[in-house]
Recover the amino acids of this structure.
C-alpha cells in the first residue's frame, strides 16, 4: 500500500470514530439532566447502537456488498446520518428523539464494517497493515472526548455534541468520495439471510465448550452495558467535571493493554484471559461503589482506566478464541455471529435492563440520600429537585422556570406514597439557588452488575474447558 492510500484510509478511520465518540459519552447526562428523560428512557436510547448492530449485517451483506461501490454508499450513509444527528439535536420529546437516534445508528453502524472492507480491499497483508490504520479510530475517540470536554458544562447540558458529530458526519460523507474506488463484489449465487447472519457458524454450537462460551458471552454483556449507559451520568453527579475527557482514559489504557496483551496471552491462555476480563468488569463496579460511598474520586479513575483490561482481555480474547475454533470456511461468519451475540443481542438486552434498574433506584421510586448542586442556568423543566423548608427535605418536579431576578422554579410537589413518591396535587415556587438534584442510589445500582459479572465469571470458570488444538479443517495442509 502506498503512502497516499495509507493516509487517506487513516483519516477515514479518524473521522469514522470521531462521530461516535463525540455524542455517545455525554448523551446520558444530557438526556437526564437537561431533557428530563427517565432512566429507562436513557437505557432505551443506549440500546440504539445494539439494535442497529443486529440489523446492519442484512444491509452490508445483502445490499451494500452487492449493488454499490463501497465509497459511495459510505458517503450517502454518513450524510444521512449527519442530518439525523442534527435533527435530533433540535427535539426535546423522547417520542421524536428516539426514532431519530435509531435512524442515525441505522445509517452509522453499517459504516463500521464498510470502512473495514474498504481498507482490506487496498491491503496485501491485512494482518500487518490494518492495525496501524485502525488504531486511528481509537485515537480519534480520545480526541473527540478531549474536544467535547473543552465545552465545559455545555458538553452535558446542551445538544452541542450532537451538532458537532453531525457536522463531522457530513464532512466524512463528502470525504468518502475521495477514497479509493471499491466496486461491489460479484457473487455467483444469491445472498441469503443465512449467509448474512453467519448461521453456518451455528455448527460450532455442537461443541459443548463453545456453546458455553457463547452463552457466557451473551450473559456477561448484560452487566457490561451498565458501564456504557450510565457511567457518564454517574461521573458527572459525583464530582468529575470533564466527563467526556475523563472517559478517554479508558481508551488510552485500551491502547496500552493491546500492546502488552501478547505477553499476558502467552502466560494465561484463552480461559484465564476471559476470566480475568470478566473479573475486572465486576471489580470496576465495586470501585465505583467504593468511590460513591466514600465520596472520593480515585476509585472512579481507577475503574475507568480498567477499561483497557476489561475490553481487551474479554472481547479481543473472545475474537481470538473464535478464530481458533472455527474452520477456515466459516471463520468470518463465526466472527460475525459472536459480534451479533455480544455487541448486538447482549448489549441490547443490557441497555434495557440497566435502564430499568437505574429507574427502580432513582427518585421518585426511592428516597434519595445524596444530591447534586446545579447552577441556576442549568436547570430545566421536567427534572426532579429537592429543597429545604423549615429544616425538612421536600421533593418535586420542575414544571416552569422564571428567569427574572431572582430566578425561580415552579415545582409540582411530590409526597411519600405506597410505591415511592407521588404527585401531591399542589405546586410551590422556589428560588433556583435553593434547589438540588436527587441522585440515584448508585451504591445499590453498581452492586447488581458487579454481582452479576462475578457470578457469570465463576460459573464460566467451573464449566468452560479449553486446550490449545489444531484448527478444524487444517488437517492435511
Amino acid at each position: 500500500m502506498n503512502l497516499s492510500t495509507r493516509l487517506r484510509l487513516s483519516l477515514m478511520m479518524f473521522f469514522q470514530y470521531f462521530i461516535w465518540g463525540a455524542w455517545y459519552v455525554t448523551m446520558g447526562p444530557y438526556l437526564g439532566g437537561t431533557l428530563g428523560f427517565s432512566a429507562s428512557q436513557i437505557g432505551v436510547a443506549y440500546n440504539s447502537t445494539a439494535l442497529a448492530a443486529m440489523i446492519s449485517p442484512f444491509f452490508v451483506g445483502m445490499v451494500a456488498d452487492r449493488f454499490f461501490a463501497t465509497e459511495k454508499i459510505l458517503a450517502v450513509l454518513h450524510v444521512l446520518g449527519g442530518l439525523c444527528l442534527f435533527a435530533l439535536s433540535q427535539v426535546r420529546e423522547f417520542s421524536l428523539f428516539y426514532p431519530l437516534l435509531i435512524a442515525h445508528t441505522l445509517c452509522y453502524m453499517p459504516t463500521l464494517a464498510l470502512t473495514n472492507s474498504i481498507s482490506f480491499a487496498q491491503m496485501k497483508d491485512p494482518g500487518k497493515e490494518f492495525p496501524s490504520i485502525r488504531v486511528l479510530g481509537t485515537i480519534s475517540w480520545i480526541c473527540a472526548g478531549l474536544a467535547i470536554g473543552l465545552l465545559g458544562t455545555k458538553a452535558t447540558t446542551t445538544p452541542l455534541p450532537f451538532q458537532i458529530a453531525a457536522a463531522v458526519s457530513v464532512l466524512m460523507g463528502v470525504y468518502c468520495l475521495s477514497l479509493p474506488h471499491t466496486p461491489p463484489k460479484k457473487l455467483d449465487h444469491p445472498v441469503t439471510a443465512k449467509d448474512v447472519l453467519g448461521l453456518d457458524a451455528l455448527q460450532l454450537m455442537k461443541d459443548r465448550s463453545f456453546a458455553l462460551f457463547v452463552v457466557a458471552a451473551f450473559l456477561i454483556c448484560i452487566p457490561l452495558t451498565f458501564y456504557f449507559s450510565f457511567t457518564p451520568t454517574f461521573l458527572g453527579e459525583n464530582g468529575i467535571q470533564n466527563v467526556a475527557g475523563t472517559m478517554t482514559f479508558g481508551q488510552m489504557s485500551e491502547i496500552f493493554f493491546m500492546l502488552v496483551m501478547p505477553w499476558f496471552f502467552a502466560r494465561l491462555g484463552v480461559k484465564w484471559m476471559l476470566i480475568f476480563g470478566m473479573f475486572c468488569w465486576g471489580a470496576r463496579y465495586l470501585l465505583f461503589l467504593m468511590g460513591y460511598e466514600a465520596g472520593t474520586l480515585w476509585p472512579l479513575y481507577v475503574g475507568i482506566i480498567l477499561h483497557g483490561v476489561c475490553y481487551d482481555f474479554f472481547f479481543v480474547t473472545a475474537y481470538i478464541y473464535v478464530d481458533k475454533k472455527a474452520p477456515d470456511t466459516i471463520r468470518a461468519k463465526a466472527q460475525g455471529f459472536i459480534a451479533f451475540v455480544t455487541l448486538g443481542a447482549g448489549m441490547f438486552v443490557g441497555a434495557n435492563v440497566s435502564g430499568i434498574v437505574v429507574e427502580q433506584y432513582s427518585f421518585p421510586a426511592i428516597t434519595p440520600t445524596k444530591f447534586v448542586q446545579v447552577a441556576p442556568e442549568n436547570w430545566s423543566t421536567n427534572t426532579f429537585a429537592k429543597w429545604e423548608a423549615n429544616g425538612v427535605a421536600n421533593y418535586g418536579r420542575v414544571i416552569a422556570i422564571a428567569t427574572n431576578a431572582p430566578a425561580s422554579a415552579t415545582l409540582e410537589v411530590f409526597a411519600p406514597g405506597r410505591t415511592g413518591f407521588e404527585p401531591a396535587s399542589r405546586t410551590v415556587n422556589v428560588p433556583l439557588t435553593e434547589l438540588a438534584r436527587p441522585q440515584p442510589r448508585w451504591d445499590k445500582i453498581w452492586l447488581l452488575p458487579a454481582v452479576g459479572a462475578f457470578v457469570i465469571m465463576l460459573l464460566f470458570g467451573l464449566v468452560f474447558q479449553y486446550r490449545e488444538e489444531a484448527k478444524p479443517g487444517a488437517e492435511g495442509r
Remarks:
- The longest strand covers residues 420-431.
- The two ends are 29 Å apart (CA to CA).
- Residues 371-438 form a domain with the SH3 type barrels. fold (CATH 2.30.30).
- Confidence is low (pLDDT under 50) at residues 470-477.
